[in-house]
Amino acid sequence: MKRSLLKPARLIISLLFLLAISVMFLDFRNFVSPKFIETFTFLQFVPSLLNFSILSFGFLIVIAITLLFGRIYCSTICPLGSFQDVLSFRNRNRYTFAKPHNTLRYGILALTVIVFVFGSSLVLNLLDPFSSFGRIFSNLFRPVVIALNNFTAPLLESKGVLLLYSVRWGEPVVFSILFASAVLMLVFWLSVRHGRLYCNTLCPVGALLGLVSKVSVFRIAFGDHACTHCGECAKVCKSRCIDVEEKEIDMSSCVSCFNCFDACDRSGINYELRKSRSERKPVEKSRRKFMVNTALFSTVVLPGAEIPLKQVKLGKPTTVPVVLTSQISPPGSVSISHFTSKCTACHLCVSACPTRVLVPSITEFGLHGLLQPHMGFNRGHCNYECTVCIDLCPTGAIKPIDV
Known about the structure:
Elements: H1 3-26, H2 34-41, H3 45-50, H4 58-69, H5 72-76, H6 79-87, H7 102-117, H8 122-127, H9 129-158, H10 174-194, H11 204-213, E1 218-222, H12 232-235, E2 242-243, E3 248-249, H13 259-263, E4 269-273, H14 285-300, E5 312-313, E6 323-324, H15 336-342, H16 348-352, E7 358-360, E8 373-375, H17 388-392
Antiparallel strand pairs: 1-4, 2-3, 5-6, 7-8
Helix pairs in contact: 1-6, 1-9, 6-9, 7-11, 7-14, 9-10
């Protein structure tokens, strides 16, 4: 492919994934088929990793692509990455090269892995980019779409148009809304002011793929003779990974947005085969210290973070007292332990549930299950003939069962 076609191709693919996944979380009438959803969630890294099987191996394809071409995933497939590009579309700031925050991003990656190995998916749930995107759209944007629908439906009905109908609201969980709002504001501020800093500091998927892209077969690099040190490529680099003075590009931070190709009209920057390097940078003492502290935190603090479940009386009118000795996970989730270990709290099932019985948890599953959906029977009911949440779950937290 010609160099000039790389960026247009990336934009088309990223917009396709962004629009398709946005529709998944905004679809309150269940128009989108499970097959359509599976097509676009297949390559989402964390859901595919947790649901690994013969039929679900999308994360391996992502790793293979990264080994070949670098972090294509972060600029084309990841919805949160594409969403950041939309938020910063009108940004007129000129970027400058900045050294990567390796201690922070690899420390967060280590924390995520160690906590997960010790049986808690809390950090992964909170930082997984697909789930963060889902919570933003499910908790913040979807209610706006429902409000517009419920406002428009009676107006159309008065005119004899029955295309729309009012939809019942789900139970609002204030903590889930506030958390999604905080993440949205953080992503917005970082993307507008600092480009892809979120992807290169707080995102564990970005950190992991950054390590893989260090050994990618093809990489973006300076041409030995065509580059004139004009610095135009660095000004449009959202990852701030182009060092014009040293003529080096940090491929662990580069998300392959190809903005630099458009900025350089002299072919001073190109894709080329990776050159072997003999020298190795010494291990940073601060990074090693952080890793040790992370392991200590995971082994000492987290095992005691489980909040015991209490008896809960359902708030519904009945003459027979109903007492729960444990919270109820969605149908097909096998057990609470299986569900909380697999669910990343993306809220795709919460968005799709037709009776709104699925609501985000706070302490219902303990600290480890923060924001994971549970059955809120005090506000809704579960249709016995419904398998919507089962059909849509991308992580395998809800196993397939028939009606």
